[in-house]
Amino acid sequence: MIEGVRGTRAIEGVAAQKYERIVETFNTVYKNLDFELIKIPILEKEELFTRTTGEFTDIVTKQMYQFKDKGGRSLVLRPEGTAGVMRNYIEKKYNNQKKYIYCEQMYRYERPQKGRYREFHQVGAEIIGSNDTLDSSIDILKGSVKFLQSLNVDFSLIINTIGISEDRDKYMKTLEKYIERIKKS
Q1: What is the pLDDT of residues 83-102, one digit of tens each?
Q2: Nearest-5° angle of CA 132, CA 84, CA 151?
């Protein structure tokens, strides 16, 4: 008997029905907010993730399924959706605002723990090319709230920020002083 690959699973029965309801609800909510569906490739060039997430992050050094194809190109199974959506936008040379949603299988090579899988499903929403980041953030939050409400999920929304770059600089200096005081005591 050949067993499935560790960290993967088949979804069927009631679980498949729940999955389908979640995806349909997500798509309906965001399409009503004028987002369009994008299907991104499973395979991407490794450099897409080393350039966008940094060469030494955990996702790059430990968690990507990386391999060389027969042509010697370094490829990965997509570990997340944002980079592929952005690559598509740039590659097609769009210069207008695009609002995308996706529902894809993602792959991360990590030791499977309870409730975590090497192959997992993720939905996401991206707004690209907007000059108004506040309105874009509000659209994403509005969709997220409507999505969770539609699924009857009991949740609370807590928004936190460390402000604009000047605020972050002040915060970092204050944090560094605090850490130095703790080290000395």
Answers
A1: 999 999 999 999 999 999 99
A2: 70
Is the pLDDT assigned to residue 137 strictly greater than 90?
A: no
Question: Is 157:141 a contact under the CB 8 Å cutoff?
Answer: yes
d(CA 37, CA 102): 6
Contacts of 2 (CB under 8 A, 6+ apart): none
pTM: 0.79
Q: Phi and psi for 28 in degrees, rounded to 5?
A: -60, -50
H helix runs in the chain, sequence order = 13-31, 46-53, 58, 82-91, 133-150, 165-184
Query: What distance in Å separates the CA atoms of residue 169 and residue 104, rounded to the nearest whole number?
Result: 37
